[in-house]
Amino acid sequence: MTLPGLTEEEHENLCRRCGSSCHWAVPVNGLPVVVDELHCTYLARDPDGRFRCTVYETRFEVAPWCRTAEQALEHGLLAQDCPYAKHRSGYRGKVTLHPRLQKTVEPAIRAEILRTGVPNGASLAGALRFLHRTGPETFKFKYDADNERHMPVVIHDVDEDGED
Ligand code: SF4
User: Fold this and answer.
1) In a domain, 1, yes or no
2) Rounded to whole angstroms, how far apart are CA atoms 67 and 35?
3) pTM for this structure?
4) Quick check: is 81 in a domain?
5) What φ, ψ does residue 7 adopt, rounded to 5°?
6) 150 CB less than 6 Å from ligand 1?
7) Do the domain assignments include residue 164?
8) pLDDT by 10s per residue, the chain, length 164
């Protein structure tokens, strides 16, 4: 589905490849905050800083957590200032904070990840990078009881492997 008055190509070209929709946002004071290291395991970053899906053609087969642009819009999974959300008044999407502000909320983000884990499909290597950058402990991930989320577990033997 394209936006009214746009060709399919014009519609596709609206994408800034900011990667927000392929990052998991962590709620901080009710605001869904994008965390640089917390993203889909299939997301890659090009040298120009823009993001790219490495499995775009087959994403709905290999990444069942992936959503169409319409679904992402419906569920507030696009960036707050996403061009695809411009026509939707009152749209509330994901926010990317200024690095200085992001630093101040990192302890809250860390606490939330320790409490709720990360969802299936998230890059566990990225999530570990965040946890190891923001605190002293070493972690690995274990599935929760429903096999839906990966819960961080502190390890004391740094040679033990984590999942990813
Ligand atoms: S599989 Fe979906 S969520 Fe993952 S990088 Fe590709 S488009 Fe983004």
Assistant:
1) no
2) 19
3) 0.89
4) yes
5) -75, 170
6) no
7) no
8) 666 677 888 888 889 999 999 999 999 999 999 999 999 999 999 999 999 999 999 999 999 999 998 899 999 999 999 999 988 999 999 999 999 999 999 999 999 999 999 999 999 999 999 999 999 999 999 999 988 899 999 997 555 555 55
The strand pair at 149-155 and 118-119 is best described as antiparallel
Number of domains in the chain: 1
Domain span at residue 150 reads 8-155
Please check whether residue 3 lies inside any domain of the structure.
no
Q: Is the CB of 51 under 6 A from ligand 1?
A: no
Give me the sign of the Cα torsion angle 143, 109, 121, 140. negative
Rounded CA-CA distance 63/84 in Å is 22
**CA proximity to 32, closest of 92, 114, 111:** 92
Check if the beta carbon of residue 133 is closer than 8 Å to that of residue 109. no
Q: Is 63 in the pocket of ligand 1 (CB under 6 A)?
A: yes
